[in-house]
Design a protein that fits this description.
Order of helices and strands of chain A: HHHHHHHHH
Number of domains of chain A: 1
Number of strands of chain A: 0
CATH superfamily of chain A: AhpD-like
Shape of chain A: globular
Structural class of chain A: mainly alpha
Strand content of chain A: under 5%
Oligomer: homodimer
CATH class of chain A: Mainly Alpha
């Protein structure tokens, strides 16, 4: 049961984003810019970072939602699972492996991101902007994960819920629908 | 040395917020609403949460900046130091002790925020909104700390720098000055 009263029909982050609309708005904007804005990383690659960080933080709601988003964007149901299992053996480019390792280090602690980890990414062709965005996406998902778990929100267990949510965040992105969410 | 090129005259978070202005804008807005917007927690109390979380994450820049902001807002140079040393013996109310412990648990992991920790706050008079805001402020400062340290930004060692920064964020808040920052 959540630590504060939240609507039953809005699990995970969705109820929190309706609880305080004024703080939700910049959180949504930041996410929309970082995950859907112009970037040399694909939307699917950026969702892999979100899924990996959420998995390392053991935040079931965000892990399931962003894994599904990555699956849909990459048209591949195995990639996110492989990344979360072992970045080094996942079927992604060397550049993405290096960036995903930077994200995993950021999840542990900002101070864990070593010059060697950054050098590896740069040698594999990563730009300053890609390194910057990887750290900021990882930091943003630590915010989400701590927000979602720190208030003990509910994570549905039915995969159909995350299929619906994955379709929403890949189709419409992270903006709030006009009028909010109905119960249906 | 930072992992990406940042201007020498803009240490810590200040250079990152100028590096990507589009992502900086919602980060600034969220901070302004949470730390300076209407609340039953004083601005000084909210800066204590920011300082405690930054201290636990060992992020020297944010720790020094928000400690100074708390000092100025509370007109007391000892309170933030006492809180960071031991919340339980710090000269703050029982409600603030309970909220600061929730912030410290959020820093560790969202899943560490127990029903007992929340009950303690509620018994001491904390509202749902205060509990919500404490978790979100703690989560936001984990984002900041991971962003600042994950890109290896520089933390000045001169206390005069944090006096200047503390006066800026207590006087003008977290909004960007028109035209950004000069070198002077």
């Amino acid at each position: 049961m959540p630590h504060i009263p939240l609507p039953d029909h809005l699990p995970g982050i969705t109820g929190l984003l309706e609880y305080r609309l004024d703080t939700a708005q910049p959180i949504r904007e930041l996410t929309q810019i970082l995950l859907r804005g112009e970037s040399t990383l694909s939307e699917g690659e950026r969702e892999l970072i979100a899924a990996l960080v959420s998995s390392r933080n053991c935040t079931n709601f965000c892990n399931a939602a962003h894994t599904k988003a990555a699956d849909l964007l990459l048209d591949n149901d195995e990639m996110a699972r492989a990344v979360k299992n072992d970045v080094e053996t996942a079927p992604v480019s060397e550049k993405m492996k290096a960036l995903l390792q930077i994200a995993a280090l950021t999840q542990q602690s900002g101070r864990a991101v070593s010059p060697d980890a950054v050098d590896r990414a740069r040698i594999a062709g990563a730009t300053d902007r890609e390194i910057h965005d990887t750290v900021l996406i990882a930091a943003l998902f630590c915010l989400y994960n701590k927000y979602v778990d720190g208030l003990a929100t509910v994570a549905p267990t039915d995969p159909a819920y995350y299929q619906m949510l994955g379709e929403r965040i890949t189709g419409r992105g992270y903006v709030r629908p006009p009028g909010g969410y109905s119960k249906s």
